[in-house]
Write a structure and sequence with these properties.
about 250 residues; alpha/beta; Rossmann fold; 7-stranded parallel beta sheet; 8 helices; globular; binds NADP nicotinamide-adenine-dinucleotide phosphate
Length: about 250
């Protein structure tokens, strides 16, 4: 992972869970990181901890469903660190959990704006700079729900499926410019998202014990490895962290 040292990365959804763990993992590897999320004080605090540990870390308040916010996020990284090498599109929401027939069209659509359009906005804003420098890595944090319909999760399954297709489309257009776009499905992870899922009581995922989920540090390490040139074969694909061959390859 030495090749990552000195690179500049943006991590969305870095206030907690997988995003916060990924920001810490990358920072420990010498990557200059920009932490983005809506909770301003939390990302400021997280960035401060990384700086205290000797890293270079910035915090930018950003709602990924707002394109202007995302553009400002990319600009902040470029002005702070002089470039943008890595974008981790990790921000995501599981709410509102419920049946499609009784769903609230506004909150349903807002979840899709975050989980799907947020990924598009990130790539749309980052790709021109990466294309100019003829290099870059974009990791889109997906979900097995993209491939398996689940009761109460129509917004989540559909938006993750759409984002997975964006990974494949972006790879077609960006690979020739030296940019790798990769998706990762992390399995079930012990984060606030799983607390909300358990509380809903809907579908088999909510019946799992919290202790059955993996710690966010594991997907964070997988994401860091995917940012290296060793993972080039995964460009345009969505890899599952449940895949044992992948775990071995990534040194997990
Ligand atoms: P989490 O603990 O709930 O964290 C979600 C993160 O996304 C938070 O930092 C949140 O920050 C941020 N976020 C939500 N809406 C946002 C918005 N509009 N703009 C910017 N940031 C936003 O969940 P997690 O488990 O770490 O999830 C991270 C990713 O992994 C998600 O894409 C999720 O779908 C995926 N995933 C998780 C699991 C799992 O079992 N946990 C399984 C498969 C896939 P703010 O609220 O401060 O904005």
């Amino acid at each position: 992972m030495h090749e990552l040292s000195g690179k500049a990365a943006i991590i969305t959804g870095a206030s907690r869970g997988i995003g916060a763990a990924t920001a810490a993992t990358l920072s420990n590897l010498g990557v200059n990181v920009v932490l983005a999320a809506r909770s301003e004080s939390t990302i400021r605090h997280n960035a401060e901890i990384l700086r205290d540990n000797g890293g270079q870390a910035e915090a930018v308040t950003c709602d990924v469903s707002n394109y202007k916010d995302v553009q400002a996020l990319i600009s902040h990284c470029e002005s702070s660190f002089g470039r943008l090498d890595i974008l981790i599109n990790n921000a995501g929401v599981i709410e509102p959990i419920g049946h499609l027939a009784t769903s609230n069209p506004d909150t349903w659509a807002h979840a899709a704006d975050i989980n799907f359009k947020g990924v598009y906005f990130g790539m749309r804003a980052a790709l021109p700079a990466m294309m100019t420098q003829q290099s870059g890595v974009i990791i889109n944090v997906g979900s097995g729900a993209a491939y398996s319909p689940l009761e109460g999760w129509s917004h989540y399954c559909a938006s993750k499926a759409a984002a997975a297709m964006l990974t494949r489309c972006a790879d077609k257009e960006a690979a020739a410019s030296g940019i790798r776009v990769i998706g990762i499905s992390p399995g079930t992870v012990a984060t606030e998202m799983q607390v909300l899922i358990k509380a809903s009581g809907i579908n088999p995922v909510s019946q799992m014990d919290y202790s059955d989920h993996i710690e966010p540090e594991l997907p964070a390490r997988a994401i860091a490895w995917l940012c290296t040139s060793e993972a080039a074969e995964y460009a345009g694909k969505e890899v599952s962290l449940r895949d044992e061959a992948f775990q071995k390859q990534a040194g997990l």
